[in-house]
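quick q for whoever's on today - can somebody do inverse folding on this one?? i tried earlier but teh output was garbage lol. tokens:
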């Protein structure tokens, strides 16, 4: 069962280098971790060929799936659109997997 989705967004000013944005998403899936592991294995191919300047880390933490997205932006940088699109695409994949695995979302924060 997909129990809860928690997000954390952190933007850090790096002086002349611009701003580093980090989005962490924790998807609490089930109490045994099987669904989290299955979702992780399905998402790993998405971690290939991501837009330049973006980084993604997917891993499990027992019963949760952790998704960490990072991008460093300079003034006028247009990669923020790619960053948002990438996060949206991964969340859409998780939603599809939840429907296929027939698990529902109890709570979204």
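ok took a stab at it. sequence:
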């Amino acid at each position: 069962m997909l129990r809860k989705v928690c997000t954390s967004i952190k933007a850090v000013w790096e002086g002349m280098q611009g701003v580093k944005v980090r989005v962490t998403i924790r998807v609490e899936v089930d109490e045994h971790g099987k669904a989290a592991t299955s979702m992780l294995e399905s998402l790993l191919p998405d971690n290939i060929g991501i837009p330049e300047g973006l980084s993604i880390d997917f891993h499990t933490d027992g019963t949760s799936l952790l998704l960490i997205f990072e991008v460093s932006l300079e003034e006028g940088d247009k990669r923020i659109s790619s960053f948002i699109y990438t996060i949206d695409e991964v969340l859409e994949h998780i939603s599809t997997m939840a429907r296929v695995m027939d698990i529902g979302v109890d709570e979204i924060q």
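fwiw The chain has one domain: 2-106. also Residues 79-100 form the longest helix (22 residues). so keep that in mind when u check it
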